[in-house]
Design a protein that fits this description.
The chain has one domain: Jelly Rolls (Sandwich). A hairpin with a 4-residue loop joins strand 7 and strand 8. It is 0% helix and 33% strand.
């Protein structure tokens, strides 16, 4: 398969998700967390419908935070197929996550590294991989 032919994620995988997500658009590009977060481990997680393309030198995606909710604990990142869907990206080995509430990048451990600003309602934030 040529690099240009490698399939990239196109939508959210709503079958392999956890927590109180409700798909709010028929095109599977938006989700809303509808549960009340009672503790730090009460998270909703959704993955893309396909893995990140590995034959491309760069891969990038963005999300728009329409409503960060009362606690504003949103994370974006890259996870593997065996990721525990009840954890935020970055809290498990072999994955990473950029967390909205503290602006830290977590890479499989409990301690994050400074990455960027925090983000909230109305912000667009992106994540990428540079395979070079």
């Amino acid at each position: 398969m040529e690099e240009d032919d490698e399939e990239a994620p196109e939508e959210l995988n709503t079958i392999n998700s956890s927590g109180g997500f409700l798909v709010v658009t028929p095109d599977k590009l938006s989700v809303r967390y509808t549960n009340v977060s009672l503790h730090g481990h009460d998270v909703g997680v959704v993955q893309a419908n396909k893995p990140t393309p590995v034959k491309r030198l760069l891969y990038y995606f963005e999300i728009y935070v329409k409503d960060a909710g009362a606690k504003g604990q949103i994370a974006i990142g890259f996870t593997n197929e065996g990721f525990k869907m009840r954890r935020q990206p970055g809290w498990e080995i072999n994955n990473c996550g950029y967390h909205e509430d503290d602006g830290l990048l977590y890479q499989g451990q409990g301690k994050g590294d400074a990455l960027g600003p925090t983000y909230t309602t109305g912000d667009t934030v992106g994540g990428g991989i540079n395979y070079v």
